[in-house]
C-alpha cells in the first residue's frame, strides 16, 4: 500500500457494457430495490423523460467507482485504498471460559480514539482531525442529535437536555447549556445575529402525553439563555407532541396541531398567525426557513388519497403576507425541502408510498420550473433516510441556481434544473458507503462528502462539472478515525471554511454502545 492519496478515477479506453450492470445503459431495467422512503408525504406529477445515453465503461479494478458523465454511467479504476485499522477498531480480547461452559457474552464499551491518537496515526497527506467524546450520561434508548449550527468559530448542537458549543479549530467545548427537559425540535438555521429558538418538552419524564410546548431562546455566540415561554393551547384538539419550526431573518415560525404561528426571535413576542386557506380543507402543517419563510399545507383532506394535494406558500417573515402559492397535482404531497433559494423540494405519491417520489424546482412567484424523476438512477428519497417527518432539511441533497445534487448509498449525481436532464454522476463500488453533497458549486460541480466504511476511511472531494475524471480530493480522512466515522454515517453534516463536521443523527444511551459525539476534518494548512 502506498501512502500517496489514491485517485478515484483513472481514464481508460471505452469498454463494452458489463452484462447485468443496471448502470451500464439507460433503459436496461429498473434500478435495484432499496429501503422505502419515510411514511410522510408522497410524490409529484410527471417528469421529463431522460434521453437514452451511450455508455462509457472505463477500465476498472475490483471495488472501483462507476462514473457517469453527460447522462451515461461508466466505471473507473483505483478503488479507495484500504488502510490498517486505527485505535478505534481494536476490540477487547474475549474473556476465558471454562471448558464445557457456555460462552458468556459481556458487552464491552467501544473504544473511542482520542484526538491525539488520531493525530499520531496520521499518514502523509491525511487531513487534520479532532473528535469529541461527550461523557454526558444519557437515559437508555436512542436520542436524536438535532441540527448543526455554525457561528463565529463554533459548531453548536442540541442533544437530549443539553445544548453545547465546540470550537471549530480543535473541538474544545466552549460552553454548554443544561436544560430541565429534553429538546424535541430545533430550526435548521439560527437568526443572522446568532440567536436560535429551541422547542423542548413540558415535563422531564418520558411518559406519554408529554407535550413539546416550551420555547427557549439561546444566543449561540455566548451560550446565554434568553426568553422562555410556553406555547398557548390551540383548543380541545391540541396535540403539541410533534412540532416543526423554522427561522427566517428575525422571525421564528412554528407549526403544530394544524396551526402555524410566528414569533419575534429577539423577545418572543407573537407576530401573527399563519392562517388556514379554504378553511376545513387546507391547513398549515410544516415550516422551513433561511433566506425565505416557506409554509407547507395539507389540503382537501379526504379518504380518497387521489383527491388530496399540498400547497406551498412563501410568507413575508416580517408581516405574514403571502407572496406566492404553489399547488401540487391531486394525489401528490409535499415531501422535503432541498433548497430555499432556488426553491427545490421533493414530492411523494399517495398511491405509491414505497418508491413514488420526484424532485420539483420552482421559478419566480412559485411557478413550476421543472420536474425530475431520479429513480431510474437508483437515487432514494432524501438519500434513503427520509426527512424524519420534518420538511427541512432533505438529507443527502444540495442545490445551486442551475442544478440539484442528489446523494445516498454508494452514489451521487447532478441534474440540470432547466431541463431536468441527468448531467453526471459517480457510483462507488462499496455499498456500505454514502455520498452526501455538501454544497452545489458553479458550473454543475459539487462538493461531496464520502463516508468511511469497513474497507477504509472516508474523504471529501470536489467533483468538477465534467463529472468523472475531474474530481479533486480536498480532505483525505485519517484511517484512525474510520471506526467512529463509519458509525456516524454522515447523519448530520456541516461544512465551513474548508472544514467538515460530522455527527450521528442519533446517539444511544447504552453505556455498552458508546459512540463519539462529533468528528471533524480540515486541510493540513488550516491553522488553529
TrEMBL record:
Residues 8-20, 29-38 have a biased composition (Pro residues). Pfam families: PQQ_2. The chain crosses the membrane at residues 49-68. InterPro entries: PQQ_rpt_dom, Quinoprotein_ADH-like_sf, WD40/YVTN_repeat-like_dom_sf. Residues 124-273 form the Pyrrolo-quinoline quinone repeat domain. Residues 1-44, 78-110 are annotated as: Disordered. Gene3D superfamilies: YVTN repeat-like/Quinoprotein amine dehydrogenase. It comes from the Bacteria. The keyword Cell cycle does not apply. SUPFAM superfamilies: Quinoprotein alcohol dehydrogenase-like. This is PQQ-binding-like beta-propeller repeat protein. Keywords: Membrane, Transmembrane, Transmembrane helix. It comes from Streptomyces cyaneofuscatus. Signal peptide: none annotated.
